[in-house]
Amino acid sequence: MTTPKYINSTRLLRRVAAVMLLLSAVAIVAFAQSSNSSTNNSKSKKYVATKEIIFDQTTKTLRKPDAAETDAMVAQISALTSTSTEGLKVKTLANGTKQLNLQGRFSEVIIGRANADGTVETRCVSSLEEAAAFLGLEEAQ
Fold first, then answer.
1. Beta-strand (E) ranges in the chain?
2. How far from chain centre, in Å, is Cα 78?
């Protein structure tokens, strides 16, 4: 008896895809739980600007961001790069696939800083710590 060359290849591919998706979701949740404590700590930290990264249109010079601008940058970057799993729920679909809505978290963000010559330097970051180093933000004492 001969076996068909392709035994339910579509079904097999769907199962493999479902398993890969589930493993990815589990890996993300496990990684996030292991780094949750450092993420929560960074939200309570205050930062101060040490570099002139904003091009002031009125004076045509670079300046440091003020406290409000710094707080806004830190809040925005923290929210987008958050690795907190708090409130995330795994949903099981009808076909058995597990689905996890990351709610805008676990993102990489492109940020920029102005240069004295009027150009903008950009960097893709995946954490507040990376962003702070690029933007010249230091933890307030």
1. 47-49, 54-56, 61-63, 90-92, 98-100, 109-114, 120-125, 137-139
2. 8
Distance from C-alpha of 50 to C-alpha of 30, rounded to nearest angstrom:
35
Q: How many domains does the chain have?
A: 1
Residue 76 structure tokens: 């925005």
User: For residue 3, is it within any domain?
Assistant: no
Inside any domain, residue 47: yes
With vertex at residue 141, the alpha carbon angle to CA 45 and CA 74, rounded to the nearest 5 degrees, is 30
Burial 22-61 (b: 16+ CB within 10 A, else e): beebeebeeebeeeeeebeebeeeebebeebbbbeeeeee
Q: For the segment 59-82, what is each residue's pLDDT rounded down to a tens digit?
A: 889 999 999 999 999 999 998 899
Domain of residue 68 covers: 9-139
The DSSP code for 96 is S
Residue 63 lies in a domain: yes
What does the pLDDT look like over 1-36, one tens digit per residue?
A: 555 555 555 555 555 454 444 444 444 444 444 444
Question: Domain for residue 117, yes or no?
Answer: yes
Question: Which residue type is seen at 27?
Answer: A
